[in-house]
From TrEMBL:
Domain MotA/TolQ/ExbB proton channel, residue spans: 90-212
Compartment(s) of residence: Cell membrane; Membrane
Membrane topology reported for the UniProt record: Multi-pass membrane protein
Gene Ontology BP term (one): protein import
Regions crossing the membrane: 30-51, 133-156, 176-197
Family: Belongs to the exbB/tolQ family.
Single GO cellular component term: plasma membrane
Organism: Urechidicola croceus
Full protein name: Biopolymer transporter ExbB
Pfam families (alphabetical): MotA_ExbB
Keyword annotations from UniProtKB, A to Z: Cell membrane, Membrane, Protein transport, Transmembrane, Transmembrane helix, Transport
Taxonomy, superkingdom: Bacteria
InterPro entries: ExbB/TolQ_transport (IPR050790), MotA_ExbB_proton_chnl (IPR002898)
Length: 226
C-alpha cells in the first residue's frame, strides 16, 4: 500500500515538472509574449516568402530542350517575327533574354550582348524578389530571441534585488527558464529562415546558369558564318 502511494506521489511530481510550451510563453510576462509574437510573425513571413519563391522559380525553370533548335532554325531562315512569337509564348527567363537579343539583330554584336546582359539583370532581380527578407529574418530572429531572454533575466534579478535577497529560488528559476524560451524560439525561427534562404539561393543560381548558357548559345549562333 505504501509503495502504491509512493508511485502516485512520484507520478504527480513528474506531471508537475512537465514543461508546457503554452505555460512557458504565458508565464514569461508581457515582454516575453511580445517577443514570441514578433518571432511568430517573422516565421510566417519567412515561410510565405519561401513557398512563394519556390513555386515561382519552379514555374520558370522548366525549359524545352527543343527551344533553342527552333530559335536557330527561324533565325537562320530570317523568320525573326516567328522567333519573337515563340519567345513570347515561352514563360522562362532565358526566352525573354533571347527575345531581347532577337530584337537587336542587325546591330553590332556588342550592343546585342549589352541588351541581353541588361535583360538578364532584370530577370535575376525578379527571381530574387523578397529573398533578402529571408536573410534578414535568419540573422535577426536569434538576436530578437536573445533580447527577450535578456529582458527576462533583468526582470528576474530585479525581483531578487527588490526582495532584499529573500526571493524564492523556485520562482526565480522559473522566471529564468521561462525567459530562455525566447532564445530557443529565436534560434528555431532563424534556423528555418536560414535553410529556406540557402535553398532559394541554390534554385536561383541554377536558373541563372541556364540563362547564361542559353545567352552564350544564342550569341554563338549570331557569330556563325552565314
Amino acid at each position: 500500500m505504501q509503495q502504491e502511494a509512493q508511485e502516485v506521489l512520484d507520478e504527480a511530481l513528474s506531471e508537475e515538472k512537465t514543461l508546457s510550451i503554452y505555460n512557458l510563453i504565458m508565464d514569461g510576462g508581457i515582454g516575453g509574449q511580445v517577443i514570441i509574437l514578433i518571432l511568430i510573425i517573422l516565421l510566417i513571413a519567412a515561410l510565405y516568402i519561401y513557398f512563394e519563391r519556390v513555386f515561382a522559380i519552379n514555374a520558370v525553370s522548366k525549359t524545352d530542350d527543343n527551344f533553342m533548335n527552333q530559335i536557330k532554325d527561324q533565325v537562320v531562315n530570317g523568320k525573326l517575327d516567328a522567333a519573337k512569337v515563340l519567345c513570347a509564348q515561352t514563360n522562362s527567363p532565358e526566352a525573354r533574354l533571347i527575345e531581347k537579343g532577337i530584337s537587336r539583330i542587325g546591330k553590332p554584336l556588342e550592343d546585342i550582348n549589352t541588351a541581353i546582359e541588361s535583360a538578364g539583370t532584370l530577370e535575376v532581380y525578379k527571381l530574387e524578389k523578397n529573398v533578402s527578407i529571408l536573410a534578414t529574418v535568419a540573422g535577426a530572429a536569434p538576436m530578437i530571441g536573445f533580447l527577450g531572454t535578456v529582458i527576462g533575466m533583468i526582470l528576474a534579478f530585479h525581483e531578487m534585488a527588490t526582495s532584499g535577497g529573500q526571493a524564492e529560488m523556485g520562482s526565480l528559476a522559473a522566471g529564468i527558464y521561462t525567459a530562455m524560451t525566447t532564445t530557443v524560439a529565436g534560434l528555431i525561427v532563424g534556423i528555418i529562415a536560414y535553410i529556406a534562404y540557402n535553398h532559394i539561393v541554390v534554385k536561383t543560381n541554377k536558373v541563372v546558369h541556364q540563362m547564361e548558357a542559353k545567352a552564350v548559345e544564342f550569341l554563338d549562333l549570331l557569330n556563325e558564318p552565314v
